[in-house]
Amino acid sequence: MRGGRERGTMGRLFEEGGVGRVGARGRQQKCRPRDGVSPLNAMSPTAAVSLLMTSWLALGVREVTAQIHDCPLGWVTFNDHCYHFVFYPTQTLEAAVAVCEQDAGYLLSINTEAEHLFISEWLTKQELDRSRRWWTSGIGAGTTLRWEGDGTALTFDTSSKWGEADADKKANLHIVYTFTIATNTFLWNRQPDSEKSPFICEVNRQESFRVTQAQRDFTYGTLYSDVALAPRGPRFTILPESVVVADRVDSTYLECEADSLPPPSYTCWSTVPPEYNHSPLCYRYKRTSTSIIRISSDVDPRYTLTNGRLSLQDPQTPADAGLYYCAAENEFGSINTPAVRVSFGYIGDFSNDPPGSVRAKRYQGTVINCNPPRYNPDASFQWFKGPGANFLRTDLNKYLFMSFNGKLYFSETSLADAGMYHCVVTLTVPPGQRFATVQPPSKTSLGIELIVEGDVATDFGPEIHNDFPAVFPTVPLRGQQLRVECLAYGSLPLYYTWSRDNGPVPDKAWYLEDNRVLILPDVQLEDAGNYTCNVQRKSSTSHAKSISLVIEAAPFFMFPLRDQHVDIDSQVSIRCHAGGVPAPTYAWQKNGQPLTSTPGDVEVSGNVVVIKRVDPARHSGMYECSATNLHGTSVSSAQLRVLSFAPTFSKRPLADTMTATIGGNATIICQPDASPSPEMTWSLNDAPLNLVKGAEGRVVLLDNGNLFITQVQMSDQGRYTCTAENLNGRASSTGLLSVVSRTTITVPPRDTHVDVNGSAFLQCQASFDRKQRDLVYVWSFNDVTIDADKDPTFKQSTSDDQLGLYIINTQFEHAGEYRCTALTVDDSVTASAYLTVQGPPSEPAGVLGQVVNGMSVVLIWSVGDSHGADILFFNIEYKSNFNPVWRYKYTQLRTADTLSAEHPDKHTYVVTDLSPGSSYSFRVSAINRYGVGPPSQPSAYLKIPDAAPTKAPEEISIMYSTVGTLAFTWQELSEEDLTGDGVGYKVFWRKKTNNDNGGLWQREVLYGRTDRHVALVGQDNFYLEYEVKVGAFNSLGDGPNSTIFIIMSAEDLPIETPRNVRTGEYNATAFQVFWNKVDTSRQAMRGKLVGFQVNYWWEPEPGTLYSSNVWCDDCEETMVIGVIPNENYWINVQVFNTVGLGPKGEDTFISLLLNPPLLYPEYVMVSSHGPDSVFVQWRGVSIGLLEEPLIGYKASD
What we know:
By secondary structure, the protein is mostly beta strands. Strands 14, 17, 18, 21, 22, 23 and 33 form a 7-stranded mixed β-sheet that branches. The longest helix is centred in the first third of the chain and has 14 residues, at 113-126. Residues 78-202 form the C-type lectin domain. Residues 840-947, 952-1052, 1057-1157 form the Fibronectin type-III domain.
């Protein structure tokens, strides 16, 4: 009879449909439902589950002691731990940790000298390949050495444990056991995590039963059979991100979202009774104390809380600045997101003091420093030249380079580079933060003058500047996009190449700025190494410099916490494994509150929590592991369900009919749901078999409760009943065993669910006449025979009580039908089961698009396999025929927003803001609670009809030209923005007036792609302000014009001459020059006065002219240095603007001073003179005819 009979609290509850209670003597008394309504049916499913799983509480006080289990088959026992030495397949450290986790254990941790000696001796005896290394979980050095497997620190002397000199100091590498010739034993060493090696798993004997325990999920102990419908605690699907507010914005927001059943509550008391005092949704830490403030409209009407979205109107500093986190809860517990920050960005003002000038030799390299003001959090830099916003274009000027450090570099300079340069600093935010601003604020520096001197052109370089190579961000983090820059001084052309010492440059890398910039997207720890920039000029001259790229990482979880469904009073270990550089530290929370050690109850040790005897009232709930280093915090959460309920066979009864073969073996499986684990008894035809675990015989009761029969006889035929009993009750299930002469499968594989990257086990056991024939098991997957010796994914178990197939590190491609064939020389028998792999969704299918309304596309797609969890969101990416890089158009579109009544079996969405004239391809990816799935196949390209341009050119700036012209340039529209054929530009200009209406616009139509124009304005219209605007057009019409920019017309040569030039002596090698204030008007300067040039020549050589430039627009004096003492010079002065020099002034004569003293005092003697003085004596000096008279002496310490 299927399901058999069930007794006890839970059994009667299922049978009678009522709620039972237990009397003083343990009798079950039926509680009659009122008004004919079953209390169970009147309750919510989750409430019914809670009732079923807490029914044990009425049964009285439990007297339970910790149970020590035998180690599983294939594991080695030492003291109170079990060890599994895994020779094959070898694994990386991360994969080894995963395998041990799947076995309910952890990677080896060494806690005592005796344990080390045991491992060393075992390997010395058993490991014949002396070159192999065995993984452990040890990391760190000295006092920081710890074992990640059990979270403990080192507790014994390690000086004799190391097999290689200095291995103990390599703190960032994990410890391995390796054979050491000097001691003829296995000792400790180190190796990188990416190496593949055998490994050792470990488990405490109190938890060793979990190695062979059937996998449990959220359906275990509930009325549900579909895990997707089973009640569970919250898990975040959207995490908030930090926000930087700049200037005045109307509003900003933080958003989180969690998945759970029942759905999570985002307000404090909406669905939770008052006595259930969990944390409310969203909090902000106070800046001035350690207390926490609940955010709601009651605190401030500017706050609005809608589900997981916290909206903030009119954000203010410092009131709203601080740390925020989101909490989500349901009746199973509460979890918190990592804290995020709301901050207010700022950028200070440049100094009002004029910056100094930069002098450069002509045809040599130089650099101009921006010296930016203070800013927070980040900034980008741009440069322009001259009085107009003539933004520099490095794509047009290959000798220029604007670094992310804010500096402007010149590989070589020319006279045309002289002028005033301005640095523009714009506020930005780091990756991973959101910018709440209408327009990022920016500041512009005063002009920094570049003076170019000399006139000798020689080939030189290349010479890589001392600032390079440089990496940005300066502390590279895993997952970021890195920019590695290189700039050399030297005569153009210069050719840049990159290499890497420890292997090739990653394939994902790409280059900018003529290979001066190396871009590494989504950088990973393995991308670290020495990168070399090599710069070559011509064929023989080159220079190379290297940078050591060290990749650090914010904490990331190699494996998230696992939900656990455990028996009451058992010992439970919860482990989290996080990577990070530097290594992270760990903290734990339970239901949103800090979790710390409680002696005798809970032990918190680093990344491991051990609960000695779990109790549902104290220990059930949501647990979070926080991993933190200087780069941030990551959180992983999981639910711990402490179960206690009577056995039930409702989901897995004994098979109605079973067969066994005469002379063979048979296993009858008894696997009820029960907690704690029940005691099993068996009867045959209602007669008790009175079996004892561990006793030998032909009929054996196995440790897991199954019945194992060897040398099957006809007398074994009959009705077998398995009775399971624990402290909550008893249940039975019966099946009929028939004995036949043919081979039969007594334990067929069952349909199984497994999480992606997990391991699955399909049991298959046959009964056959062992005296007459041999039997082999052959497995096939989707009708293809499995060769477990060649494919490490599969492993066949040969244990008599656990025959079957393991699928290790299961992937989606392993989902399908598995067939077990028991084969003898005379016959064969098969049984099959289906393996379902749960995880992120598969790629959506059939992405189609249709252009609507000229500028939009309606996308239609079908979802793929959801892989065991509802699809929550979709991402849509796009690329165009002009830009083949995939870019996100929309992220985390809610499934509800993609439903359509017109296509009920598909999903749709309207993609807007596309550029006319471009062809687009789209792809879609789906998201469920396991993560983001792979993208779909790209759609066919969809052509958006041509139209007039929709964007205007930007960055209109001055371009230097000859007098009588107005020359300007602009940022040309990209191909994607030209939106059609027959492209060109219309440029407009007019002289600026004080009249608001201005004058008439002059216009020129330029056909084809261009980024500059020179307009004739006449010789008399030099250095005047003109209003300029530019618009693009194509064959379908005109696009919008740019905003109006002010551009100066070209300058003419100055006509002003400095007057009343006079000189003054300063010392023997320098003199001063003075002149009257000059007329700086437009008419006199024919432009803007840039400075003065002082010309001077030595009287004996009037043909040798020297000059000294003064870069100022209001000075009336300067100093000339470096002249010859006791000589005569003639001087005159000229003004200059950006075009050139004005006329020379009158010549002035000066006779320089004689030399300073040529001798120095000798025989200096110092003696004490008083408590705060000394007496100094020396021998004086004599003055010659070519020296100025002696004035005195100067003493200095």
